[in-house]
Amino acid sequence: MDIRHMQYFLEVARHRSFTKAAETLYITQPTISKTIRNMEDEWGVTLFYRQGKKVELTDAGRIMYQQAQQMVEAFQQMSYELEDLMELRRGHLVIGLPPMIGSSFFPVVIGQFHQKYPQITIQLIEDGAKKVEMDVESGLIDIGVAVLPVREELFHYYSFIEENLKLLLHPSHSFAARDSVSLKELAEEPFVLFREDFTLHDRIIRECVQAGFEPKVVYESSQWDLISGMVAANLGIALLPETICQEIDASRVAIVPLDHPSIPWQLGMIWRKDRYMSFAAREWISFTRNLLAEKPESV
């Protein structure tokens, strides 16, 4: 067994799918399936069991998962330190991005970074902000974009956007021509939200409860364009950040400021405090901070 086998195992565990793990690793599914079988034969245990279309870790698999994470992380840190020692200006970064902000900010940022550092490769993992934060904590990804605040005892971060959520309505809605709408006025409205693995899902529900009502959630999605499309189809209302609202066709939906209270949305680049930072990671943080940051970062 070598470190590559451990990486294969971790990807299957992360995606709960041999097919998705193979796509992420750019290898064939039979290759990854054979690797897992060989690991199981070598150790005399079953690492995964199938549950519908997904696979789940067995008890032995969970033990292997904990140890494999530590082994892969130790190997990566050794590689980073050796590269830095040899002053090689190359490397590999795994960066987590919430889907709703990736297209708004990062194609240009990544393109400019690649021009400056052509030998640094980047792997993007798209997940909700809550999952991104968990994966930075566990070491599955190097750096992530998360909704602030995060736990300051675990993470360094810098903020690069701070704005409020806005209300999306069908143009025929009685609130569509208003200058602003208070949150409590939405008590009887059907809500279209992001899924539970998105920080905004919990944030919106919490704010509604504080305003005196439990929101009536009729649809959930991981895509902001689908959410705005549902509003345009008059299936409900939505609350989205200003940056996302700028991407939406204003002829299809009405966008109205929300007040009493407004709901803030602050994004930051986060990384673990207690983990070795490779040359590639340090340069990404420095480069993007200069390009994006609105405020001094917390370190």
Question: Which key terms come to mind for this protein?
Answer:
LysR family transcriptional regulator; 10 helices; Arc Repressor Mutant, subunit A; eight-stranded mixed beta sheet; disordered C terminus; 299 residues; alpha/beta; HTH-type_LysR_regulators; D-Maltodextrin-Binding Protein, domain 2
Structure explained in plain terms:
The structure is a single chain. The chain has 299 residues and is an alpha/beta fold. The protein has ten helices and twelve strands. Mean pLDDT is 89; it is low at 295-299.
Q: Which structural class best describes the helix and strand composition? A: alpha/beta
What portion of residues belong to β-strands?
Answer: 15-25%
Average pLDDT score: 89
Compressed to H and E, one letter per element, the order equals: HHHEEHEHEHEEEEHEHEHEEH
Largest sheet: 8 strands, mixed
Outline of this structure?
This protein has 299 residues and is α/β, with parallel strands linked by helices.
Topology:
Layout: H1 3-15, H2 18-25, H3 29-43, E1 48-51, E2 54-57, H4 59-85, E3 91-97, H5 99-116, E4 120-126, H6 129-138, E5 143-147, E6 155-169, E7 181-182, E8 190-194, H7 199-210, E9 216-221, H8 224-232, E10 238-241, H9 242-245, E11 254-259, E12 264-272, H10 279-292
Parallel strand pairs: 3-4, 3-5, 7-11, 8-9
Antiparallel strand pairs: 1-2, 5-12, 6-10, 6-11, 6-12
Helix pairs in contact: 1-2, 1-4, 2-3
